[in-house]
Request: fold
Amino acid sequence: MQVPFVDLKIQYHSIKTEIDSAIQSVIKETAFIGGKHVKQFEMDFSRFIGIKHCVSCGNGTDALQITLKALNIGHGDEVILPANSFIATSEAVTAAGAKVVFCDADEQTNNINIKLLEPLITSKTKAIIAVHLYGNPADMDGVLEIAKRHQLKVIEDAAQAHGATYKNKMIGTFGDVACFSFYPGKNLGAYGDGGAMVTNDDELAIKMRMWANHGRIEKYNHEFEGYNSRLDGLQAAILSAKLPFLNQWIENRRTAAKQFTQQLKGLPELIIPKESEECYSVYHLYVIKTKERDKLQVFLKEKGIATGVHYPIGLPFLKAYSYLNHSLKDFPITAKNQKLLLSLPIYPEINKEQITYVTEMIKQFFNEKL
Ligand SMILES: *Cc1c(COP(=O)(O)O)cnc(C)c1O
Reply:
């Protein structure tokens, strides 16, 4: 049996009529940049999140960078973010001109470790970026409490967490701004690049819109130099067509995660993800931990099962950040986890038989080893 890591084709075929007609209408109207489909998706997505403004842009990385710019965060400022994330989170900070400050992970969730956060704050700290890694919400009470005490901005990197909730409140509504990615493999994915920022702050929404559009509100009236970062009409129409299915897809991911958990629990060599009571995870990824990670990954590949590692090198240990001179000792939890993490295949259309096959092969691996 073959189990791919994600399967975007199967999803397209399940909503082919909706997607094809969305694409056709954009072409018929030649509404390629801006226009009604982009406006419509911004309305649809802000309604889905339950927030006042959605400002679309070119991708999730841009969303983070534009957010920092609109918040006036740049040269001389520091931004704290988790040591385990995709590089986009830290890249955006540097691109905005500010300094990245890494915070080690929480052992269980791999999200930002609230207990280690406060000592990292200096007089230069301006913001905290909380990443809802794997689709599992970060400890937002902890983040907001510390941010409030030190008057810091809070940015949610929700690139992996469309539709997740924390204490029954939608992810994306906690920070000053939340940033989303619509990269095809994300839980709400376009057929190309796409991103968005959401906020309840009227003034900030205008600023972010200007930053994403050459620093202008009107056609040739530029108040400052911004960027060219746009969600195109085709992607917007596709996203609007897909959005009504998102809650069902989340349910399917959670059902798949539950099956993985039931069938994998009790294996002594394996740590499985544990969802805390206040978190409703959307399982962008289902990440297990084992000391046998590398061997297990090869074994599963031989059995036709694709897996991933998120992430094999913690951000502070990447060559890109060698200038910060960090060692493994600075971030012991991230250093330990990066050798253990293994992401199993998960997507809304994965079926029971595939999951059972994956878990049977994992059990077989540990049986043969013992
Ligand atoms: C995907 C991702 C991003 C960047 O999104 P792009 O649309 O690919 O630029 C940022 N942060 C995290 C955590 C991501 O997973």
Remarks:
- The first strand starts at residue 53 and ends at 57.
- Residues 59-61, 85-86, 88-89, 131, 157, 159-160, 181, 183, 193, 195 surround pyridoxal-5'-phosphate (CB under 6 Å).
- The chain has a mean pLDDT of 97.
- Residues 8-244 form a domain with the Aspartate Aminotransferase; domain 2 fold (CATH 3.40.640.10).
